[in-house]
Amino acid sequence: MLYREAGQFKTSYQKDQAIFPIRQDRIAVWALLLAVFIAVPLLADDYWLGSIITPLLVLSLAAIGLNILTGYAGQLSLGTAGFMAVGAFAAYNLNIRVPELPLIVDFLLAGVFAAMVGMVFGLPSLRIKGFYLAVATLAAQFFIEWVFTHVGWFTNYSSSGVISAPPMHILGMTIDTAVEKYLLTLSVVAVLALGAKNMVRSRIGRSWMAVRDKDISAEVIGIPLLSTKLSAFGISSFYCGVAGALWTYCYLGTVEPAAFDLNRSFQVLFMIIIGGVGSILGSFLGAGFIVLLPILLNNIAAMIGHGTLQADTMANLEHIIFGGLIIFFLIVEPHGLARLWQIAKEKLRLWPFPY
Amino acid sequence: MSGERKIGDVILRCDNISLSFGGVRALTNISVDVREHEVLAIIGPNGAGKSSMLNVINGVYHPQEGTVTYRGQTRRAMKPHETARQGIARTFQNIALFKGMSVLDNIMTGRYTKMKRNFLWQALYWGANLREEIEHREVCERVIDFLQIENIRKTPVGRLPYGLQKRVELGRALAAEPDLLLLDEPMAGMNVEEKEDMCRFILDVNDEFGTTIVLIEHDMGVVMDISDRVAVLDYGKKIADGPPEEVRANQDVIDAYLGVAH
Questions:
Q1: Which of A17, A213, A216 faces B133 most closely, judged by CB atoms?
Q2: Which residue of A has its CA nearest to B130?
Q3: Domain shared by B171 and B182, yes or no
């Protein structure tokens, strides 16, 4: 009943093209932003902020990156973690080798380095598609991990092969508590997510989707395939690179190349499959699902199963239920949680009088 | 019906085009002129090489022999996205829309070559980029208005019936404001009413915007009605070229369509 757009007339194309054309949505989004910027830091403790919400946000950013490439431009990639590693190690090296640069510039340049590497590994995409391209990006994943493990320069010849993020300073402020790191991560993610949303509803986003849906007619309309695919690889890797830098600086603190192994790539890929391929919102929903659900199950299990079942049985049950839920949601809506959300909104507009 | 319209000079000339795929000769030594503002129909039995001809014109195929001269510029090999920039647009025989996008987005894609802002502007979606989006939205809305598809502009094209999809595809090509429009069987699989609509759109495009149109069509009634000139292909060779009445009376054409004892 509350969710009605009756009486909201759009009188300009600008209003019609807004991200949230319905007033109730706009109110909800502002409320959400207030909540995550003010309420969450006040209410959540350091454990939740530092170990759950911050990594959740960083993985959402990586999922946005992969969604640009796979969801919008249709180029399947398994190199996500590799590009994150490039961002992480680039930010670290810029930070210790060029200390004059502000930290935010380090993060952005880390993204740019990741973008360049991503574009190099995107070159085969002109010739190969689908699963074969996934195999080609797998090469990126293994190659990048190998380089950071074996070339000492990147880790500043650290004997353990591990890099430790130096203390962070932005505009004279030191960022070291969980709340500060959370707010930094949140700001970066919010700005970049808005940028991604804007790109996908602009010319470049339409060219990505055109290439995804029908490359021959995209080309006939004037969209050059190679540069469009490379732009998708570049911008996607930029997002992954910034995510990698945040992962190092705001979440882990010390990181080794193995933190960016193939499992991480798969994790991000599953996030966008469950959240919604070709949806910015889906990137967040998918990351939330993959990160939060196991914790939720764990807590439920601890509550009800305390003493009645053995711990290892419990752990296995959690895995079974988690897997079952993934299958359940994919059967209910193969296009992911974002589509489910969209259907719910469409239904809500008519509720309670669907006819 | 369109004898009075001023048909201008030749804007596209194909000289001695030969195209083969391995041992199969799709086109043999074909020369065709397209004059400004005219409607040229290419007809012929199945496998005559009509679609190959269109593919040669907009650069999807590169002929082994012969040249294509467009607006006085001779080219041998050019990519489709380059010919699009020169003002050649086309539709496909099998609908080739972007299934995951809305009607409006599909048509906006047609404006791709006219939009200039880079991706950083687009990430901001502010100022110059917003103005650009709105300016091109207005052009697309005129196309939508022209094709009478206002009510479905936000619908994903995958949900639309076949006839409307064909219309949207025409809209996408029109959004590019082409000088030369190539239509590959725009009326295939349509009922009489839809065909009439489509004929009207084609003639209106030709009249109002002065767009030169090359179309492939099997419905002879339609071809004879709307085209200024008809070129007939058979087995990759051109067997006739002229006004519809003349072509209809041509013995070679009748033989090609009805078959003849060899």
A1: A17
A2: A14
A3: no
